[in-house]
């Protein structure tokens, strides 16, 4: 555009100069004479054109000049680059998983605490009184381990014996399946998920693909108390991990891997702590007071 304006104003100035010679004089042009009106008009047009381009570029509009000087090949390369950028943006948006449930429809309470703290015992009471479905991640894994034809049977058994955390894909799939079934059967859409998440990756993935949790109950208990409870339970539980060797390993995993999950949820103000070194009924009264506050009719 600037070039066109300059060209046309040059033409105008030339025409004007020729006209001047014809009309007023046959003498050669006087170099010191004052500029003609046309020349001043040409200069003003150039000034305006330059101003127009500055304003356009400040508004983020492409300067027409750039287009004039771009070759068709460069234009095509630029178009392809922009297309690839749009495609990559769309793909990255589509890859973000959509959770299976919305937190408005499904309520999840994570129940955490050391091995033998009494999580399962308290969950059974809550199930009866508050209409929650109790899903123990450990129970689901043990059932899968025993299921005929399961390709994870041996793997789960080895992980449990060593107190290690089974790869999250297995546990999350089992939990989601159990939730879908409970909802389909019309049991409830409120879930107590016991002994999960025990590792940060599980927590993040579950909230991303299944549903964000509402609350985390954390059962605090001294290690010595948990040890005695587990050894007692091991007298007839039949569990491969209720023995002193496995229990020691489970305590280490709890401290090193599972406590950071509790800490992370504390930062989100989602954790309610309950002291478990008391008789079952006393612990339950504390849990009840929390549930009455959070899950009363109005909430
Ligand atoms: N407050 C309590 N006082 C005494 N014994 C308890 C108490 N709570 C639970 N127990 C007993 O302690 C043992 C462990 O309890 P429970 O199975 O509920 O723990 P847990 O936290 O679910 O354990 P895990 O994580 O190993 O499954 C059980 O035998 C249970 O009866
Ligand atoms: O998310 C989970 C939960 C449990 N495990 C394995 O199961 C055992 C027993 O769990 P309990 O909750 O004590 O019944 C646990 O030590 C882990 O090995 C898991 O891998 N992931």
UniProtKB/TrEMBL annotation:
- Quote the InterPro entries the UniProt record gives: Adenylat/UMP-CMP_kin, Adenylat_kinase_CS, P-loop_NTPase, UMP_CMP_kinase
Q: Where does a ribonucleoside 5'-phosphate bind?
A: 142, 164-166, 195-198, 202, 239, 250
> What are the names of the required cofactors?
Mg(2+)
Keywords, in A-Z order: ATP-binding, Cytoplasm, Kinase, Nucleotide-binding, Nucleus, Pyrimidine biosynthesis, Transferase
Cofactor binding annotation: Binds 1 Mg(2+) ion per monomer.
Stretch list, region NMPbind = 136-166
Q: Name one GO molecular function term.
A: ATP binding
User: Which GO CC terms are listed, alphabetically?
Assistant: cytoplasm; nucleus
- SUPFAM superfamilies attached to this UniProt entry: P-loop containing nucleoside triphosphate hydrolases
Region annotation (LID) maps to: 232-242
Q: Give the principal location in a single coarse category.
A: cytoplasm
Is Cytoplasm included in the keywords of this UniProt record?
A: yes
Keyword Acetylation in the entry? The reply is no
The UniProt entry, under NCBIfam families, shows:
UMP_CMP_kin_fam
Family, per entry: Belongs to the adenylate kinase family. UMP-CMP kinase subfamily.
What's its job? Catalyzes the phosphorylation of pyrimidine nucleoside monophosphates at the expense of ATP. Plays an important role in de novo pyrimidine nucleotide biosynthesis. Has preference for UMP and dUMP as phosphate acceptors, but can also use CMP, dCMP and AMP.
> Can you name this protein?
Uridylate kinase
What is the originating organism of this protein?
Answer: Parasitella parasitica
């Amino acid at each position: 555009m600037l070039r066109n304006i300059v060209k046309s104003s040059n033409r105008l100035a030339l025409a004007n100069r020729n006209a001047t010679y014809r009309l007023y004089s046959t003498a050669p042009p006087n170099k010191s004479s004052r500029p003609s009106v046309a020349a001043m008009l040409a200069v003003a047009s150039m000034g305006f054109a330059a101003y127009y381009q500055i304003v356009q570029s400040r508004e983020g509009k492409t300067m027409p000049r750039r287009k004039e000087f771009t070759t068709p090949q460069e234009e095509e390369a630029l178009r392809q680059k922009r297309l690839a950028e749009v495609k990559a943006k769309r793909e990255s948006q589509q890859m973000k998983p959509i959770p299976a449930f919305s937190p408005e429809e499904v309520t999840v309470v994570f129940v955490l605490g050391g091995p033998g703290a009494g999580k399962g015992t308290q969950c059974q009471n809550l199930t009866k009184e508050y209409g929650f479905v109790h899903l123990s991640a450990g129970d689901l894994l043990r059932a899968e381990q025993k299921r005929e034809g399961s390709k994870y049977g041996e793997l789960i058994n080895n992980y449990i014996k060593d107190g290690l955390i089974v790869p999250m894909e297995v546990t999350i799939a089992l939990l989601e399946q159990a939730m879908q079934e409970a909802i389909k059967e019309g049991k409830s859409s409120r879930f107590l998920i016991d002994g999960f998440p025990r590792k940060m990756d599980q927590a993040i993935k579950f909230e991303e693909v299944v549903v964000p949790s509402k609350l985390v109950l954390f059962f605090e208990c001294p290690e010595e108390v948990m040890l005695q409870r587990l050894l007692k339970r091991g007298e007839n539980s039949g569990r491969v991990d209720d023995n002193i060797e496995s229990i020691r390993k489970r305590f280490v995993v709890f401290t090193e891997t599972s406590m950071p999950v509790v800490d992370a949820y504390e930062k989100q103000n989602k954790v309610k702590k309950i002291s478990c070194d008391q008789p079952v009924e006393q612990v339950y009264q504390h849990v009840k007071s929390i549930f009455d506050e959070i899950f009363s009719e109005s909430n």
